[in-house]
């Protein structure tokens, strides 16, 4: 069905984080395809024809996906492993919680970690899932968000040098929020099992790491307390 002369053709996108974005017009949708924010199997709602379709089946997008199509190695997934040999103590020291550790400590700590790259819009952590480890952000950008009434509320944005999920090393309770990759990112993860092994095999290493993480958590709690206090003071002032 052809669009009327002045009719705006728009699309909504069901992203990998299970949030529907849009509606957006075709030029924006095409730019998202080029940036790999929209993939071949991303579901697109065509408002003009009132139907959901996979992006690669839309005639207006097929040309772009045919240019991008390349063979995929068997068994490839969305979390390819980064070579640990490419990660140096200097890179690890960018993480605030590890800044005071020596090169030897950081090199040994890296042996217990998993390196990952995550694609843009990938969901790394889901609210309510059990805590299973701490993540360090070496590169990229992530957002921590809550979905309230189907709407996204962004709690904070994380960049290189920051970490999340530290509580998992102390308490394997449920995750308190979602974490989504705004950009392709490089992460290091230490699982709770790996950290337990670190504590048993190298207590002289785990102790300074736990101390550094505790200092980071204390600073975060102080900042959150100040933010809450400022919000309460602002609300009280607005009420008068």
Rounded to an integer in angstroms, the radius of gyration calculated over CA atoms is 22 Å
What is the CATH level 1 assignment of the largest domain?
Mainly Beta
Q: Provide the β-strand percentage band.
A: 25-35%
Q: Estimate the global geometry from the Cα principal axes.
A: globular
Number of strands: 12
Strand order of the largest sheet: 2-1-3-4
SSE string, helix = H, strand = E?
EEHEEHHHEEEEEEEEHH
Distance between the termini: 58 Å
CATH architecture of the largest domain: Sandwich
Overview of the structural elements:
This protein has 240 residues and is α+β, with helices and mostly antiparallel strands. It has 2 domains: 10-67; 84-231, Sandwich (Jelly Rolls). It is built from 6 helices and 12 strands. The protein has helices spanning 26-34, 59-68, 89-92, 103-110, 192-201, 203-239; strands spanning 10-14, 20-25, 43-46, 51-54, 114-118, 123-125, 133-139, 142-148, 151-158, 163-164, 178-181, 185-191. The strands form 3 sheets. The protein has a 4-stranded antiparallel beta sheet. A 4-stranded antiparallel beta sheet has the order 5-12-7-10. Strands 6-11-8-9 form a 4-stranded antiparallel beta sheet, with no helix packed on it. A hairpin with a 5-residue loop joins β1 (10-14) and β2 (20-25). The longest helix has 37 residues, at 203-239. Mean pLDDT is 81; it is low at 1-7 and 70-80.
């Amino acid at each position: 069905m052809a669009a009327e002369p002045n009719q705006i053709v728009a699309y909504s996108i069901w992203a990998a984080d299970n949030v529907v974005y849009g509606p957006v017009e075709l030029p924006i949708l095409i730019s998202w395809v080029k940036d790999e924010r929209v993939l071949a199997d991303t579901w697109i709602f065509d408002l003009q024809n009132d139907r959901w379709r996979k992006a690669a089946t839309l005639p207006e997008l097929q040309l772009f996906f045919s240019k991008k199509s390349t063979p995929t190695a068997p068994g490839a997934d969305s979390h390819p492993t980064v070579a640990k040999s490419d990660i140096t103590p200097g890179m690890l020291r960018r993480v605030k919680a590890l800044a005071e550790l020596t090169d030897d400590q950081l090199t040994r700590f890296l042996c217990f970690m998993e390196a990952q790259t995550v694609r843009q819009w990938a969901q790394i952590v889901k609210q309510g899932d059990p805590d299973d480890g701490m993540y360090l952000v070496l590169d990229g950008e992530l957002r921590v968000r809550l979905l309230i009434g189907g709407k996204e509320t962004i709690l904070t944005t994380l960049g290189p040098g920051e970490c999340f999920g530290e509580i998992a090393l102390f308490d394997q309770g449920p995750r308190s929020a979602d974490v989504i990759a705004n950009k392709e990112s490089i992460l290091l993860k230490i699982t709770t099992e790996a950290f337990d092994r670190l504590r048993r095999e190298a207590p002289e290493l785990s102790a300074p790491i736990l101390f550094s993480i505790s200092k980071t958590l204390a600073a975060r709690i102080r900042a959150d307390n100040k933010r809450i206090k400022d919000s309460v003071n602002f609300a009280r002032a607005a009420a008068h």
